[in-house]
Specification:
It is built from 15 helices and 15 strands. Bound molecules: pyridoxal-5'-phosphate.
Length: about 400
Amino acid sequence: MTGTLTSAWRSEFPGLQQLAAEGQTWLDSAATAQKPRVMLDALQHWYAGGVANVHRSQHRPGERATTAFEQARRDIANWLGCDAASSLVFTRGTTESINLLAYSLSTSFHPGDEILVGAHEHHANLLPWQQLARRKNLVLRILPLDAAGALDMPAALAMLGPRSRLLAVSPLSNVLGHMHDLTPLLQRARELDVLSVIDGAQYAVHRQPNLAQLDADFFVCSAHKLYGPEGVGLLYAHPRRHTLLQPWQWGGEMVEHCDYQNASARPLPLGLEAGTPNTGGIIAFAATLNWLETLDRAAIEQHESALHCSLLGGLKRRGMQLLGQPDTALACFNAPGIHSADLAMLLGEQGIAVRAGQHCAMPVLDSLGLSGAVRVSLAFYNNGEDLERFFTALDAALEILA
Ligand SMILES: Cc1ncc(COP(=O)(O)O)c(C=O)c1O
């Protein structure tokens, strides 16, 4: 049953077929995902259909563009399970969304306030906070991991206190692959009126978010990892926090009123969307999510979980050293005595596209005493044959490097 479904899913991704024709197996979806036909069609439709700027033109093409753009915002908000489309701001990606927050919220902080960040965070959810802390004399505190590479929840809860002002964590790390339930942490943050930021860049790919239920203050993710186009990101801001967000970029379309000396910004979302947006990308992303919505979510999660079990089993049988105890979608590993770059190169030469290095998470690799690791990451379009090819290539590489 899943085999038939996987073939049907795979056939919707022309990029996979092209890569296969070149002898390439894509096992790097945590970096970026291949794109479904529906996304390509939506881009073609937008660009071939007569383009116009949104929110500023009185002509018919302009009206059509604005209607399609705001419909895309509603569709995406709907997919995320968030209460109001006006809480959804478009950015260029997760990195930009978090930088936006770090600038936009900066007047909410006072010297000595604490920002708490998970030890497993991607640089995108560490460096903007680190630099904000340096600019404003704040204290950056790192929530520790336990021996299994998951957030040490009792320790994290104990670190939230009266000086805490912001908590920034990801439910699913791009290196350690453990799916966290952040409910207790978010609940404590709410009790203490600590701002919460969820980096959903990896999480949203493997679990459809329900933002109303999650009840975080801010949630961010990137379209390109979620089978959508590059250059589109999301920032969800809970209505209770809208007034905290000051414009971080000034210019066209975000202004309510201005003269030569002064300007005031429009309310969210437009007040945070200065300049011409990536209209085609945003419309194509909504089309992608609408298509994902038609698939059997339970079957997708079951298929991904079965593949992940096979991946872990195969790595363990070969004595590979795993980073943490991943339970979702990816595995980072090293072969004893072999440099990760050598292994990734030999895998690459055999047509296996995996990633090696520090995965934009240098501090966590440093803390494990590692200069790098190989990462295999899965998407619902991968299948058992992809893993067979990977393991055949891994065995050959290990034999050469032994
Ligand atoms: C957990 C996590 N956060 C943030 C990012 C940054 O995403 P982007 O490069 O799309 O801004 C990534 C990318 O790998 C990620 O895995």
